[in-house]
């Protein structure tokens, strides 16, 4: 049985460590000893229609041992710096599943020969330190950033309840998710609405479209219309979900706005393109973070 | 004692009919017979530090008699069409104190020879059909749109507790108020914050500034810096107030966004100037209206 490390005990960490422990020898690394102890005793509870309980190994990240065949890093982008010493030192293949593009900047600093990227299409909401609500079923798309695809093969043959799908072009894959995040997250956070409202409300839909035009100016998307269709489909499939950015504002005030919109603003500055809407949205979310914190 | 009509029983109607009945023979015209009866029995209650009670005459607008020396029209811009038959027919001098610039379009249709404009700097919140909370003390600025200034003279000598001040240039006067309304109202409504937060939060302040630049492109303000300073002063003086647009969204869903931002968007279209932020804000507030209604 292959050894797999899952780093981070947030909603995605619990979800991945839980499901993957059915087939792998999983060790979940949590930020705190308290969370590790709680999961040792009570297991990970994944709540969907029914409740599933999993018992992977679990340790605090402070006692990290570099021994898994693959490590999945589930922390949010703004949390990565706290575990950089561990990431820099490890030789294990690493799979990063952060939103946005900001984490790409640090990949060059890693010694690991095999580095993979993934995008997550699941809806997940952490209810407490050992419970996660699997709110929306989706796929995990994975791609090679550097190294050998073979290290991903056992994930790719994993069961259909929690599927992994291979993508050839990591940049296309990340950009596709980035556009969804830019169009859905800040607007739902600003208007405090579920994803589906963006489709149903013609004024909000109009703003989503205006935002896409600005994003396209900067990122030069290959096919704007099919990109927009894809965003609308995601909104429809997740219509009752509250986006992670809306949840983050309501819970703790820190969002992924820098990884998502911040990245496009940097690109725009580099290319000397004006982005009034993206700048306005960025400042709006940063301002609301400040207000809610 | 001069006869004065106050048309409309909203927060401003109650405030003006109340205070002015100390010196004038005021008749307040309300939308409903119920409100007229309630005020006949209980009077108008103006709540400031202490409560003041006034007993002007009061009638439902359906029994309007064209007899006052001056009529002050206190309805919101989007309510004016409902009383256009009365306004069109009257020969009395009329004073309009609506926000925005949209009501200017209908002034040409009036037969009255003396038409005046005003802007209100009071904070007022209607608590029930006969009670208004006078939340912020300010002035009423008045100017001549057409006709003779003399019809305003007794207002201009009115007491210092509720002062009227004459302005030579009605357009400057309205534009000054318009800019304040554009910068403060939609942003406070969007972020759901009191006016003062726009000053304290550097991100919101940045967006207010970006918005001013767009407004200036369209309206060609004479002095942008002093305009901005003026807006900041108003924000400071009314820091604990919730703007009328925020209140409107929270109460009934209809706002003055058309009279305020809609006017600038029409001007921009006429002048072929792009206004991404104003368009985004307009659609945001229209979308939120739809959501809250």
TrEMBL record, chains A, B:
GO biological process terms, semicolon-separated: pantothenate biosynthetic process
Question: What does the UniProt keyword field contain?
Answer: NADP, Oxidoreductase, Pantothenate biosynthesis
Provide the catalytic activity annotation. Answer: (R)-pantoate + NADP(+) = 2-dehydropantoate + NADPH + H(+)
Q: What is its EC number?
A: 1.1.1.169
The record's annotation in InterPro entries points to: 6-PGluconate_DH-like_C_sf, 6PGD_dom2, ApbA, Ketopantoate_reductase, KPA_reductase, KPR_N, NAD(P)-bd_dom_sf
Which GO cellular component term is one of those annotated? Answer: cytoplasm
Q: GO terms for molecular function, please?
A: 2-dehydropantoate 2-reductase activity; NADP binding
Q: In which pathway does it act?
A: Cofactor biosynthesis; (R)-pantothenate biosynthesis; (R)-pantoate from 3-methyl-2-oxobutanoate: step 2/2
Q: Which residues form the signal peptide?
A: none
Supply the NCBIfam families for this chain.
Answer: apbA_panE, PRK06522.2-4
Function as written in the Swiss-Prot or TrEMBL entry: Catalyzes the NADPH-dependent reduction of ketopantoate into pantoic acid.
Query: What's this protein's family per the entry?
Result: Belongs to the ketopantoate reductase family.
Q: What is this protein called?
A: 2-dehydropantoate 2-reductase
């Amino acid at each position: 049985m292959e050894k797999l490390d899952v780093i981070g005990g947030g909603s995605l960490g619990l979800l991945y460590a839980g499901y993957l422990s059915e087939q792998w020898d999983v060790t979940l690394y949590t930020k705190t000893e308290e969370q590790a102890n709680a999961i040792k005793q009570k297991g990970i509870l994944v709540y969907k229609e029914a409740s599933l309980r999993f018992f992977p190994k679990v340790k605090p990240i402070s006692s990290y041992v570099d021994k898994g065949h693959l490590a999945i890093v589930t922390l949010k982008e703004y949390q990565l710096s706290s575990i950089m010493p561990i990431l820099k030192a490890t030789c294990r293949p690493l799979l990063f599943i952060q939103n946005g593009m900001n984490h790409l900047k640090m990949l060059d600093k890693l010694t690991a020969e095999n580095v993979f990227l993934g995008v997550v299409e699941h809806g997940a909401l952490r209810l407490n330190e050992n419970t996660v609500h699997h709110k929306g079923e989706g796929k995990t798309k994975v791609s090679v950033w550097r190294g050998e695809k073979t290290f991903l093969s056992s994930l790719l043959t994993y069961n259909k309840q929690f599927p992994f799908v291979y993508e050839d072009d990591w940049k296309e894959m990340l950009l596709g998710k980035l556009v969804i995040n830019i169009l859905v997250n800040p607007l739902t956070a600003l208007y405090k609405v579920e994803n589906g409202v963006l489709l149903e409300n013609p004024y909000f839909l109009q703003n989503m479209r205006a935002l896409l035009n600005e994003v396209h100016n900067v990122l030069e998307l290959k096919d704007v219309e099919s990109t927009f269709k894809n965003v609308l489909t995601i909104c429809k499939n997740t219509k009752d979900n509250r986006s992670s950015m809306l949840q983050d504002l309501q819970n703790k005030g820190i969002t992924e706005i820098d990884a998502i919109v911040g990245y496009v603003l940097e690109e725009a500055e580099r290319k000397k393109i004006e982005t009034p809407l993206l700048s306005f949205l960025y400042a709006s979310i940063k301002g609301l973070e400040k207000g809610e914190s």
